[in-house]
Amino acid sequence: MTLIYLVLGLALLLGGAEFLVKGAAGLATRLGVSPFLIGLTLVGFGTSSPELVASLEGAFQGYPGIAIGNVVGSNIANILLILGISGLVFPLVCDRDALKRDGTMMLIAAAAMAAVCVYGFLSREAGLAFLAALAVYLVYTYRADKKGNDGAGALHAAEAEFVTSGRAPGIVLELGMAAGGLIALVVGASLLVDAAVEIATKFGVSESVIGLTLVAVGTSLPELATSVLAAFRRKADIAIGNVIGSNIFNVLGIAGVVAVVKPISIPGDIASFDIWVMAVASLLFMVFAWTGARIRRVEAALLLVGYGAYTTFLLR
After folding, report:
1. Mean predicted confidence (pLDDT) in 243-251
2. Of the candidates 6, 4, 1, which has an alpha carbon nearest to the alpha carbon of residue 196?
3. How many CB atoms lie within 10 A of CB 287?
4. Are 82 and 224 in contact (CB under 8 A)?
5. What are phi and psi of 166, to 5 degrees?
6. φ, ψ for residue 295 (rounded to 5)?
7. φ, ψ of residue 157 in degrees (nearest 5)
8. At residue 121, does pLDDT exceed 70?
9. Are 57 and 162 in contact (CB under 8 A)?
10. How does 131-140 read in b/e, with b if 16+ C-beta sit within 10 Å?
11. Most exposed among 39, 166, 259, 273, judged by the fewest C-beta atoms under 10 Å?
């Protein structure tokens, strides 16, 4: 039954995120919200929604290793696994304007999370600071995109077009998709966390390891699907923007919400090792993306090898 719950939970998370993003983006478009604002907020939040509900579920059930491991592990998987796979499908060309602003914010968020991990406790004050930083970033980005100060606005607009392409299903169906997606996310997260805890107990591994691997990869499925599909469609900027946006939201948004709702301790194994893997992966991505303004197939292969080595070390 554990395997059935695991598969069902993953399916609900993937389908729930898809329906929530499409339904909410469709409603926003109908209400006259600009495409780049939809791409900046709804798409970023939507693809990170499985991480949010899974981390909240882990925190409320008393599993900090799952709550924190999911955030850190998802960011590692986004860069090493998802960009690795996407880059092998087709080399990922980077917009340096978007990279300069959003990539820098991703590094700042990673540094802030590392500082919290060193401190050892994700407090409510830290959560409020994370959410305030996210709000400032969103406002600044919105104003910059609206003025056309850099090339990132076109990227966020393209992200919105990517998820809302096709015939509009109608307002009633859009409302149903958004509400149904949210319900599926909550149910799926509960099933995934329960199954993950049972698997951890059965195989004698820590909840942190399960959170960093099984839960993190499972909740990153929407990012994986979006990025790989974008790579196949030769929309490399969307694949990269999706990962950068998700990593920012994971730390500032998800960890911020979890801290405000349920402050938790940082597991020692994550603070001593995994958070630094996340930091190094973030820096490595920036180096690869900035040099030559693209992630080549050989660099994508190196990212995948790095993820394989990391998970092998965890599960040894």
Report:
1. 89
2. 6
3. 10
4. yes
5. 110, 180
6. -105, 110
7. -65, -40
8. yes
9. no
10. bebbeebbee
11. 166
DSSP annotation string for 209-262 = HHIIIIIHHHHTHHHHHHHHHHHHTT-HHHHHHHHHHHHHIIIIIIIHHHHHHS
Pairing mode, strands 121-122 and 294-295? unpaired
Per-residue pLDDT band for 269 (boundaries 50, 70, 90) equals very high
Q: Which two tokens stand for residue 37?
A: 């604002």
Report helix angle 2-30 to 44-60, nearest 10.
Answer: 140
Report how far apart, in Å, the C-alpha atoms of 293 and of each of 228, 240, 283 are.
19, 12, 15
| Three-class DSSP category at 93 | strand
Q: Which domain covers residue 241, as residue numbers?
A: 2-315
How confident is the model at residue 153, as a pLDDT? 57
pLDDT score at 18:
72
Q: What number of other Cβ atoms are within 10 A of residue 212's Cβ?
A: 33
Q: Considering its fold, how many domains does the chain have in total? A: 1
129 vs 244: CA distance, rounded Å: 20
CATH number of the domain within which 97 lies = 1.20.1420.30
Q: How many residues does the chain have?
A: 316
Average per-residue pLDDT for the chain: 82
Q: What is the mean pLDDT of residues 79-89?
A: 90
Provide the residue type at 107 as one letter.
Answer: L
Q: How is residue 150 annotated by DSSP?
A: S
Task: Please choose, from the candidates 217, 205, 203, the residue with its C-alpha nearest in 3D space to the C-alpha of residue 9.
Answer: 217
How many helices (H) and strands (E) the chain has is answered by 18, 4
Residue bearing tokens 């390891």 = 209
pLDDT tens digits for range 11-51: 887 787 777 767 766 766 666 665 555 655 666 666 777 88
Contact between 69 and 208 under an 8 Å Cβ cutoff? The reply is yes
115: which 2 tokens?
A: 């500082």
Distance CA 261, CA 179 (A): 22
How far separated are the first and last CA of the chain, in Å rounded? 26
What is the DSSP annotation of 65-107?
HHHHHHHHHHHHIIIIIIHHHHHHHS-EE--HHHIIIIIHHHH
Helices (H), ranges, 31-63: 35-37, 44-60
